Structure formats: C-alpha cells, structure tokens
From TrEMBL:
Residues 110-132 are annotated as: Disordered. InterPro entries: Nucleoplasmin, Nucleoplasmin_core_dom, Nucleoplasmin_core_dom_sf. Residues 110-122 have a biased composition (Acidic residues). Transmembrane segments: none annotated. It is found in: Nucleus, Nucleolus. Its main location: nucleus. Pfam families: Nucleoplasmin. This is Nucleoplasmin-3. One of its GO terms (biological process) is chromatin remodeling. Keywords: Acetylation, Chaperone, Methylation, Nucleus, Phosphoprotein. It comes from the Eukaryota.
Length: 132
C-alpha cells in the first residue's frame, strides 16, 4: 500500500497507526521527503517520533530541507514500525512524505512429525574419519 502525507504550518504532524488488535506485522517505509509548491526558502526539519525499547517517546530528525539547496531527500525506504508520527519541527512547509506500508500476515508454520513420510526419515550414514 502506498503512503503519502503533507506537513504544513497548520498541519504540523501526521500519525500512522494500525489497529492494536491486528495480529499482522506492519512495516512502514519512508521513501521520499520533499518540499512542494508554495514552500519558502527556509529550513524545514521533519522528525520521526516513536517509542524506544523502554516505551519512552523519542524524536529523531530525518530531513532538513531548504528550497535553495536541498528541496528533496531520498530516504531509501527507511523502515519504521507503527505507530509512528511525522512532525514538522521547524519551518512552515509544505513538505510531502511518500512511502509504502507492507502488511505481513502471520501464518502457522508449525507441522507435526506424523506428517513426515518414511523417505524423509532415512538415517544418514555415519561420518567416517578422513584418510591421510
């Protein structure tokens, strides 16, 4: 699934979250962050806000865009685990974020030993010492 959002002076953050009862694995990958039409020549800092292993909120800047020197940044599918918030920490934008959302359904990969045929249960020959 494709993801896209825009951060502006009036909409400074966007939160991507999934249903807590969903037992699938979700990956959010951020591909591109770019200034769009109407942006001023000012620093626009985009942060990713998430939680660390101690469940504390952390914010990490991922892009610092300026119209005259770096209007676009490729993040090479920077992978995140939802829930995650994108925040315009500085500047007025508009900044467009694009990426993709992958859903991986968990499947029961277990199997029973009874399903193995006699061919699968062949014994391996013993390991012989090397000849000198």
């Amino acid at each position: 699934l494709l993801l896209g959002c825009e951060l502006t002076a009036t909409t400074k953050s966007y939160t991507f979250q999934v249903d807590e009862e969903d037992d699938s694995d979700h990956i959010l990958a951020l591909s591109v962050v770019c200034l769009t039409e109407g942006a001023k020549d000012e620093c626009n800092v985009v942060e990713v806000v998430g939680r660390n292993h101690e469940n504390q909120e952390i914010a990490v800047p991922v892009a610092n865009l300026k119209l005259s020197c770096q209007p676009l940044l490729s993040l090479d599918n920077f992978k995140l685990q939802p829930p995650v918030t994108f925040r315009l920490a500085a500047g007025s934008g508009p900044v467009h974020l694009a990426g993709w959302h992958r859903i991986m359904h968990r499947e029961d990969a277990s199997f029973e030993d009874d399903d193995l045929s006699e061919e699968d249960e062949k014994e391996l020959p013993p390991i012989m010492p090397a000849k000198k």
